[in-house]
């Protein structure tokens, strides 16, 4: 389960994308901490304060990310002058990873208060996370993520579907399975 745990960066990115007010952000953090402990790293399961402080750290980082990325070249030059190295991909990469979509879907559905579902075309989902085709391994990973995060996919009209069998232009509706 460790590889599927919510990182505080994941939560910060998801909450930031929900465009909530300050009070509502803290309510969502509290609900995640209380209700999603199975998905949190052990150090966050014990300390709400640590959990919130880490999320706030990452939210501030995300807010200033573009500015920090612009300063990265100057930082690299200063480190090189000190005979050090700094790998750009460790600091400037975007938050890719298909798992993040499923984490985001679960949190938005359970704590977003807007809708009890997330809709996306399969083609769009794959494209957003850098995939060009639907391989068997990718489908297995998607199905595993859906199982871990308690999500089910349906087509229009609530018809259950298998991601391996639907067309790429199918509009998928993800919902949290109630009896998890």
Explain what the structure shows.
The chain has 180 residues and is an alpha+beta fold. Helix content is 56%, strand content 9%. The chain contains 8 helices and 4 strands, in the order ααααααβααβββ. It has helices spanning 8-17, 22-35, 42-46, 48-81, 89-92, 98-111, 122-128, 136-148, and strands spanning 118-121, 151-155, 159-160, 171-176. A 4-stranded antiparallel beta sheet has the order 1-4-2-3. The longest helix is centred in the middle third of the chain and has 34 residues, at 48-81. The protein is globular and about 60 Å long. The chain starts with 7 loop residues before the first helix and ends with a strand. Mean pLDDT is 86; it is low at 92-96.
Average predicted confidence as pLDDT: 86
Order of helices and strands: HHHHHHEHHEEE
Unreliably modeled segments:
92-96
What's the story with the biggest beta sheet? 4 strands, antiparallel
User: Which strand-content bin applies to the residues?
Assistant: 5-15%
Total helical elements: 8
Helix fraction bin: 55-70%
The general outline is: globular
The assembly state of the depicted protein chains is single chain
Distance between the termini: 15 Å
How would you classify the helix and strand content by structural class? alpha+beta
Strand order of the largest sheet: 1-4-2-3
CA radius of gyration is 18 Å
The strand count comes to: 4
């Amino acid at each position: 389960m460790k590889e599927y745990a919510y990182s505080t960066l994941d939560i910060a990115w998801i909450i930031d994308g929900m465009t909530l007010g300050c009070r509502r952000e803290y309510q969502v953090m509290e609900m995640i901490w209380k209700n999603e402990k199975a998905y949190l790293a052990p150090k966050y399961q014990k300390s709400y304060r640590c959990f919130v402080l880490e999320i706030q750290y990452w939210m501030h980082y995300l807010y200033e990310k573009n500015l920090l990325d612009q300063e990265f070249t100057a930082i690299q030059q200063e480190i090189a002058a000190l005979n050090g190295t700094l790998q750009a991909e460790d600091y400037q990469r975007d938050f890719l990873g298909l798992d993040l979509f499923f984490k985001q879907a679960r949190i938005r559905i359970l704590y977003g208060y807007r809708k009890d579902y997330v809709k996306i075309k399969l083609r769009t989902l794959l494209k957003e996370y850098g995939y060009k085709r639907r391989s068997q391994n990718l489908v297995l990973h998607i199905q595993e993520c859906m199982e871990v995060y308690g999500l089910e996919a349906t087509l229009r009209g609530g018809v259950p579907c298998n991601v391996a069998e639907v067309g790429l232009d199918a509009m998928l509706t993800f919902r949290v399975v109630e009896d998890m």
